[in-house]
Amino acid sequence: MEGDAIMKVRRFALMLVVGISLVGAAACMTTSISPADQAEVAISSGNLPPGYRDWTLISIARLGGKVNDLRAKLGNDVAIKAYRQGTLPFPDGAIITRLAWKAVPSEENNDALRPFLEQQLGKAETGRLLVDSFVAGPATNIQFMVKDSKKWASTGGWKFIEFDNGKPAPQAEGGEKSCYECHEPAADTDYVFTRYAQ
Amino acid sequence: MEGDAIMKVRRFALMLVVGISLVGAAACMTTSISPADQAEVAISSGNLPPGYRDWTLISIARLGGKVNDLRAKLGNDVAIKAYRQGTLPFPDGAIITRLAWKAVPSEENNDALRPFLEQQLGKAETGRLLVDSFVAGPATNIQFMVKDSKKWASTGGWKFIEFDNGKPAPQAEGGEKSCYECHEPAADTDYVFTRYAQ
User: For residue B61, what are the β-bridge partners?
Assistant: First the structure.
């Protein structure tokens, strides 16, 4: 009977381990949609993807003249990993977004920077310098490139979409073609112009 | 003996649960240093904090003239949460970093944008516009503001530090005072100039 009890203990322990494993596996199965897939589903449904504002910065740029903006490119985990490892073409699931804001002169920054820059660069340079301090003002629009080499094969494997005020822009319907045409010169870098800023 | 065996099974199961709980608690204790604390320790030791390049974008800006850069402000989780909830002063553990790159004209971007902008804005505007396309070029330096209201009480609760080529800048030693003096006009926003870009 003593041996029998030990067997029961062993069987119970085994069942417990199997049970815990099954619960764990079930938990994994219910969350098996990757963040990249979730983002793609959201974008394809005309919604901004969850958490995109926390994606990693790829680089920043500005466009002057009448557009006069400051722009940031962010990438989801798949895109950032590809950038850092130099993987081309980008794997399916890579998503790049371009945020943009009107460039607004900042007298507050100019005033704060003036003493520091006068010391660093001399007064002659500073006058010219400080009228040139700009910060991000009102947001303009948000664009996404979503990689799915099969689904969007006719436009380099990328879906291109723009959001205005959180909704797909009117020109977004069927707009992939025109976006793609502009991106064609970047064919060597999988139709992506932006380089990762070290 | 049957009852004895069941007792043994119960005791074994209880021990297993207690054991798993203890292992879990121990695991939590060994990882109880928060990412914010880890970052602060790294910065105080003269190293760039792990993972800072993946922190969330707060906003972007540019400084013209001789400096001629494009700059991005990123925040760790503590800082971003405070920004989004409008918490002032920033809680201890908040870290803000400013990355900067020389602004470099991009003929590649100009060429790609020209057809699109000509269509949108007309040819007269485009000539002026497109010579103004800039991207992030070589990195300049990286600055951090680390919040610890007790440790850095004499400089608004912030440690200010600059890294050049991954190492603390020579002027970083005792440089908190001069950084703080420039940040004093932003006392109402806890000595932080940068607003979160929606």
Answer: A135, B71
Compute the average pLDDT of residues A180-190. 93
| CA separation for the pair B58, B93 (Å, rounded) | 16
Distance from A93 to chain B by nearest Cα, in Å? 19
Is the whole model's pTM more than 0.95, yes or no?
A: no
Size of interface A-B (CB pairs under 8 A): 174
At residue A139, the 3 state secondary structure works out as strand
> What token pair was written down for A29?
């199965």
CB of B103 within 8 Å of any CB in chain A?
Answer: yes
pLDDT digits (tens, 9 = 90+) for A35-93: 989 999 999 899 999 999 999 999 999 998 888 999 999 999 999 999 999 999 999 99
Facing B8 at nearest CB: one of A9, A133, A197? A9
Using CA coordinates, name the residue in chain A closest to B117: A67
| Residue-averaged pLDDT of chain A | 86
Q: Which residue of B has its CA nearest to A65?
A: B129
Say whether residue A104 is in contact with chain B using an 8 A CB cutoff: no
